[in-house]
Design brief:
By secondary structure, the protein is an all-alpha fold. The protein has helices at 3-43, 51-56, 60-73, 82-117, 121-147. The chain is built from 5 helices and no strands. Helix 1 (3-43) packs parallel to helix 4 (82-117) and helix 3 (60-73) runs antiparallel to helix 4.
Length: 150
Protein backbone atom coordinates (compact mmCIF):
# COMPACT_ATOMS: atom_id res chain seq x y z
CA UNK A 1 0.00 0.00 0.00
CA UNK A 2 1.39 3.42 -0.92
CA UNK A 3 2.06 6.19 1.59
CA UNK A 4 -0.82 8.26 0.21
CA UNK A 5 -3.22 5.32 0.52
CA UNK A 6 -2.19 4.72 4.13
CA UNK A 7 -2.64 8.42 4.93
CA UNK A 8 -6.14 8.32 3.47
CA UNK A 9 -6.88 5.07 5.31
CA UNK A 10 -5.78 6.63 8.61
CA UNK A 11 -7.86 9.74 7.95
CA UNK A 12 -10.96 7.69 7.13
CA UNK A 13 -10.38 5.40 10.14
CA UNK A 14 -10.16 8.41 12.42
CA UNK A 15 -13.41 9.90 11.15
CA UNK A 16 -15.14 6.51 11.07
CA UNK A 17 -14.22 5.54 14.62
CA UNK A 18 -15.08 8.97 15.99
CA UNK A 19 -18.37 8.95 14.10
CA UNK A 20 -19.23 5.44 15.27
CA UNK A 21 -18.68 6.51 18.86
CA UNK A 22 -20.91 9.53 18.31
CA UNK A 23 -23.61 7.32 16.82
CA UNK A 24 -23.51 4.93 19.78
CA UNK A 25 -23.36 7.77 22.31
CA UNK A 26 -26.20 9.79 20.85
CA UNK A 27 -28.22 6.61 20.43
CA UNK A 28 -27.86 5.64 24.09
CA UNK A 29 -28.69 9.14 25.28
CA UNK A 30 -31.62 9.51 22.86
CA UNK A 31 -33.18 6.25 23.99
CA UNK A 32 -32.90 7.38 27.61
CA UNK A 33 -34.38 10.79 26.77
CA UNK A 34 -37.38 9.19 25.07
CA UNK A 35 -37.92 6.90 28.05
CA UNK A 36 -37.59 9.82 30.46
CA UNK A 37 -40.08 11.91 28.50
CA UNK A 38 -42.51 8.99 28.50
CA UNK A 39 -42.25 8.75 32.30
CA UNK A 40 -42.91 12.50 32.56
CA UNK A 41 -45.95 12.32 30.28
CA UNK A 42 -47.31 9.31 32.18
CA UNK A 43 -46.92 11.17 35.49
CA UNK A 44 -48.49 14.36 34.11
CA UNK A 45 -45.22 16.27 34.52
CA UNK A 46 -43.74 18.57 31.87
CA UNK A 47 -41.11 16.83 29.73
CA UNK A 48 -37.81 18.73 30.07
CA UNK A 49 -36.50 19.99 26.74
CA UNK A 50 -33.05 20.22 28.38
CA UNK A 51 -32.58 16.49 27.83
CA UNK A 52 -31.67 17.22 24.22
CA UNK A 53 -28.41 18.77 25.44
CA UNK A 54 -27.45 15.37 26.87
CA UNK A 55 -28.49 13.63 23.66
CA UNK A 56 -26.44 15.95 21.44
CA UNK A 57 -23.29 16.06 23.54
CA UNK A 58 -21.56 13.03 21.94
CA UNK A 59 -21.90 14.38 18.41
CA UNK A 60 -19.02 16.83 18.82
CA UNK A 61 -16.55 13.95 18.76
CA UNK A 62 -17.37 13.45 15.08
CA UNK A 63 -16.10 17.00 14.50
CA UNK A 64 -12.85 16.19 16.27
CA UNK A 65 -12.39 13.18 14.00
CA UNK A 66 -13.14 15.35 10.97
CA UNK A 67 -10.54 17.94 12.02
CA UNK A 68 -7.90 15.22 12.32
CA UNK A 69 -9.02 13.72 9.01
CA UNK A 70 -8.43 17.01 7.18
CA UNK A 71 -5.01 17.48 8.79
CA UNK A 72 -4.03 13.94 7.80
CA UNK A 73 -5.27 14.34 4.24
CA UNK A 74 -2.90 17.29 3.98
CA UNK A 75 -0.04 14.83 4.51
CA UNK A 76 -0.77 12.72 1.39
CA UNK A 77 2.18 14.10 -0.60
CA UNK A 78 4.74 13.50 2.13
CA UNK A 79 7.02 10.49 1.74
CA UNK A 80 6.92 8.26 4.81
CA UNK A 81 3.69 9.77 6.18
CA UNK A 82 1.61 6.63 5.61
CA UNK A 83 2.38 4.57 8.68
CA UNK A 84 2.34 7.47 11.19
CA UNK A 85 -0.99 8.75 9.82
CA UNK A 86 -2.52 5.28 9.78
CA UNK A 87 -1.49 4.63 13.38
CA UNK A 88 -2.55 8.10 14.54
CA UNK A 89 -5.88 7.78 12.75
CA UNK A 90 -6.74 4.44 14.27
CA UNK A 91 -5.72 5.20 17.84
CA UNK A 92 -6.91 8.82 17.98
CA UNK A 93 -10.19 7.79 16.34
CA UNK A 94 -10.61 4.99 18.87
CA UNK A 95 -9.98 7.31 21.83
CA UNK A 96 -12.33 9.95 20.45
CA UNK A 97 -15.02 7.39 19.62
CA UNK A 98 -14.87 5.74 23.03
CA UNK A 99 -15.18 9.16 24.65
CA UNK A 100 -18.38 9.73 22.67
CA UNK A 101 -19.74 6.30 23.55
CA UNK A 102 -19.21 6.77 27.28
CA UNK A 103 -20.40 10.35 27.15
CA UNK A 104 -23.65 9.00 25.73
CA UNK A 105 -23.88 6.44 28.52
CA UNK A 106 -23.39 9.23 31.08
CA UNK A 107 -25.88 11.37 29.15
CA UNK A 108 -28.43 8.57 29.42
CA UNK A 109 -28.07 8.57 33.20
CA UNK A 110 -28.30 12.37 33.20
CA UNK A 111 -31.56 12.18 31.22
CA UNK A 112 -33.09 9.86 33.77
CA UNK A 113 -31.92 11.92 36.75
CA UNK A 114 -32.94 15.29 35.28
CA UNK A 115 -36.41 14.08 34.29
CA UNK A 116 -37.01 12.47 37.67
CA UNK A 117 -35.75 15.27 39.92
CA UNK A 118 -35.70 18.37 37.68
CA UNK A 119 -32.45 19.23 39.47
CA UNK A 120 -28.71 18.96 38.86
CA UNK A 121 -28.54 20.04 35.21
CA UNK A 122 -25.25 21.93 35.66
CA UNK A 123 -23.65 19.02 37.51
CA UNK A 124 -24.70 16.54 34.82
CA UNK A 125 -23.39 18.80 32.07
CA UNK A 126 -20.08 19.20 33.92
CA UNK A 127 -19.72 15.41 34.14
CA UNK A 128 -20.33 15.11 30.40
CA UNK A 129 -17.74 17.84 29.83
CA UNK A 130 -15.13 15.86 31.72
CA UNK A 131 -15.76 12.82 29.53
CA UNK A 132 -15.52 15.07 26.44
CA UNK A 133 -12.12 16.28 27.62
CA UNK A 134 -10.68 12.86 26.81
CA UNK A 135 -11.65 13.37 23.15
CA UNK A 136 -10.21 16.89 23.10
CA UNK A 137 -6.94 15.65 24.58
CA UNK A 138 -6.76 12.81 22.05
CA UNK A 139 -7.36 15.22 19.17
CA UNK A 140 -4.84 17.82 20.38
CA UNK A 141 -2.13 15.29 21.15
CA UNK A 142 -2.65 13.62 17.76
CA UNK A 143 -2.40 17.05 16.10
CA UNK A 144 0.89 17.65 17.93
CA UNK A 145 2.20 14.24 16.85
CA UNK A 146 1.16 14.90 13.24
CA UNK A 147 3.20 18.13 13.25
CA UNK A 148 6.29 15.91 13.20
CA UNK A 149 5.19 14.20 9.99
CA UNK A 150 7.03 16.33 7.40
Amino acid sequence: MSDAAMVVAGAVACLGLAGAGSAFGTGFAAAAAVGSWKKCYAAGKPAPFLLLSFVGAPITQTLYGMILMFIMLGKTGIAGAGVPCLIAGIFAGLAIGLSALFQGRAGAAACDAQAETNQGFTNYLAALGIVETVAIFAMVFALVALMYVK
